[in-house]
Design a protein that fits this description.
It contains 5 helices and no strands. The protein is mainly alpha-helical and about 120 residues long. It is flat.
């Protein structure tokens, strides 16, 4: 018997928890850096889901929606740059936190494909 499928957001949070556990031996700075990057990625994934959902719901992607998507990307890049410049994060650990979505998406795709097969 199979239960309800786990959402991509839940898998993303679980991968972040695993990454945090993996970097814990490297000290607080690494742990905080991964947590900040992962937190940004968790919020970004939610925003990306809403943006793509909005694009799919409309019949034609208007200039305003494209402009908002570009603005969202610029805000994300600005936030990443601001974190790297103003906070004492470890850049590699921060990038690791930002990349948590990759294994989460792969995990979600594999389990979705297995469920449909």
């Amino acid at each position: 018997m199979r239960g309800r499928p786990v959402s991509l957001h839940t898998k993303n949070a679980l991968v972040l928890a695993l990454f945090l556990g993996a970097v814990a031996p490297f000290g607080w700075t690494a742990l905080i850096s991964v947590a900040i990057g992962g937190g940004i990625q968790l919020v970004n994934l939610r925003g990306l889901e809403r943006s793509v959902g909005g694009m799919l719901r409309t019949s034609g992607v208007g200039g305003l929606l494209r402009g908002l998507l570009a603005l969202r990307l610029l805000l994300l890049l600005g936030l990443v740059g601001m974190v790297l410049v103003t906070l004492p994060v470890q850049p590699l650990a921060f990038a690791l936190g930002l990349s948590i979505v990759v294994p989460a998406v792969l995990w979600h795709g594999l389990t979705s494909a297995a469920r449909e097969a």
